[in-house]
Structure formats: structure tokens, C-alpha cells
Write a structure and sequence with these properties.
Structural class: alpha+beta
Number of strands: 17
Strand order of the largest sheet: 1-15-3-11-12
Largest sheet: 5 strands, antiparallel
Shape: elongated
Helix content: 40-55%
Radius of gyration: 43 Å
Distance between the termini: 25 Å
Strand content: 15-25%
Length: 443
Amino acid sequence: MGVRFQSQMGFDKVVDQLVAAEKIPVEQAKMRKEKVVEEKKEFDKLQKALAELDKATNSIKGKTDFYHLKVESSHPDILEGQIKGIAQLGTYEFEVRGLAKTDKQLAFGFPDKDKTTVGFGYMQIEREDKDPVDITIEPGSTLDKVVEQINQTDAGVRAMVINTGYTPDSYRLLVVSEKSGKEAKINIDEDTTYLEFKNQVAGRNLDVLFEDVPVTSDTNSLDQLVEGITFRVKRAEPGTRIQVNVAFDLDATVAGVKSFVEKYNDIVKFANEQSKSPKDGEPGKLAGDASIRQVMRSLQGALFPGGGIGEGKYRTLADVGVTTNPKTGELQYDDAKVRGALTDDYDSVANLFIRTRNGAGLGDRVADKIKQFRDPTSGILKSRMRGLDSIIDNQDKDIARRERQLGEKEESIKRRFSALEGQMANLQSQGQFLAQKFGGEGG
């Protein structure tokens, strides 16, 4: 029995070794697939980095993208402005003589808002730009009920009960026009309701002097006074002259250029990491891949065309403070020099990046290259990704075929060794029988 047990263990070990040997080609196929999967992941990283560069490029390649303006007011607590489109540089002078007001009608007081009844009958509300609205006040109505009825109409007004705190009749009905300006003036004919109203605030238009020219609006906003700018008036201050300056927003422009440099450098770092030689550490997963080299050559050609592309004083990136590190290929950004160039000649710096009458700027050139890389039919990155997907698909099929064959071989090996084990057991039994027989006769 002990011999048979040892024989069984020996057979099992041999079977395991044979099956393990048959698994080697399958594991090798899986490792080859994993290598391609890792390559695809790296190309995904490159595509995302290019998408980020494209986003940064789009923020500086057009005139409306590159040119950032801001509005500076000498009295922002009185008047401030906001850029809404393409505006002209310049300084403007304002004087706010009066704000636009909504018309407000106030009824005389009542001791409460929900118990004491008002007179019943008809009330008519008129506003300059709307048809009159008739409201029927039913017997037993309180101030709260009157407010509810007014607010349910389309009279262009809003009603509320306010508690003035003055006794004995502290509760009063206030009706306010929903629009400001003198054209929004309201008139209330209280008729038989005994809700005697007083014009608490008369509706009026905004009154502003702009460059000593009177201008007006039914709101406290001037949207069409100067093209591309909205001015918002906060309070009136007659006699105070306000200087409003429309100037270049250097901080916003610099942020766009700096973001472009950073996103470009992310791609350079990625390419350098991929091309690292084994002696410098673990090589990149895309080491030797021609696609990476092609991408970098194209981007560098777009950024550094021979002879420069700008107009005027600044014709290259180096002229404005963006140079190349000769060792790494990354862009080096000099904030002080960039700001100095923008302050000195904003238009000349802009012409480096934006499209002008002389052709595409750096922004357009880089954006076009990225578009070519990502073209779904002919783009180098899309083509490379399709190739990797095809390889992975074929490898999946190959692995599945090998695993089926492995399963069949494993079953075959087990069947053959099971039969051999039976034969060995039979021979062992016969040997024991003969040994006993011959041994007995000899005795």
C-alpha cells in the first residue's frame, strides 16, 4: 500500500510538471498582450496631454481669446463696468445724478393685517405700459386678502403688507412697480375700498452724465452706451466725477500664455520619459516608437518656424521671454519679460499667437497639428490606437485558442497517466503474486 501511495504521488507530480510546461506558451502570450495593453495606456496619456494643450491653445489663438480687457473705476462703489465683448481701450468720465427708481404707492394704516376689514368694491391699477386692471374687493376682505388678489393679477406690480411699528395703525399696504423708470409709474384708483394711497416714491429714470452728455435708462444699467461694455450704477453722487478706464488685463493674458507653456512642457516630459535609455533607468513603455518622435517634431516645427512669424517688434517666442531648454526641450517661461513685452507692445505680442492678415499665428499652427494627430481617419494617434486594438484583439483570440488546447492536453495527459498507473498497479500485483508463489515453493 505504501508503494502504491508513493507511486500515486509520483504520477501526480509528473502530471503537474507536464501541465505546467504546457502553460508556458499561454503565459507568454498573456505577457505579450499585457505589454501592448500598457503601450495603449501610455498613448491614452499622450492623447489626454494633447487635449489639454489644445484647450490651452484655444485660449490664446484668436483675437477675442488672447485680448483680455478690464474696466477700472475710480469710484467702484458708485459705478463699475464689465467687459461683454470686443471693446475699445480708453478712459470715460461719468457723473451719476440720480438712480432709476420704481414707483411705490403706500396705503394708510390699519391696526392689523388679517382681522380688520377694508372697504369693499372695485380697485383699478394702471401702469404706463400696460392696460388697466380691475380688482374686485369682496366684503370682509383684510389687508392680506387684498395683497393676495393684487399679486394674482398681471398688473406689473407687487403688493405686500408692511409693519411700520407706528401705533395705533402700524400695518400698511405697499404696492411697488415691477419695473423701474418713469414709464413704469403706477396709478391706483381705490374707488370705494377706502384704501387711500399716497405716492411714496415716484418712478424715475437713471440720470447720468457721460462725457458731459446726459444719458438715461429705465434701469440702473447701461448696456449699449459703449460697445462691448456694460456699466452698472450702484448709487447717485451728484457732483462727483468718476473716471472709468478700459485697459488690457495683463494678469488674464499672462495666465493664458503660462498655461500654454505648462501644457506643452507636460508633453515634452512625457516624450523624454518614454525615450529614456536603459542605462538611465527603466526605459519608457513606448521607447523607440516613431509616433512619439513624429508628434514632437511637428509641435516643435509649429512653435519655432525659421525666421519667426510675428509682426512688429516681437517676432519669436524668445523675443517675449519664452525660450527652450537645450537639454530637455522644455519651454522656459520668464514672467517679468513676458509682462514687460505685453506692457511695451501688446499688439505685437498678440500677433505672435493669433491669426493676422499675414497668416496663422503660433496658436493656430499648434492647434492644426493637434487636429491632425487626432484626426479619426488619418491621424497618427488614432491610427496607432486602432493598430494596438487590433493586436490586442488578435492576442485575445490566440490566448483563448491556446487555453482550449491546454485544457484538452491536460485531460489527455491525465487520461494517459491514469491508464499507466493502472497498468503499473497490475504489474505490481502480479509481481507480488509471483514472489509469494516462488518464495513458497523454494521453502
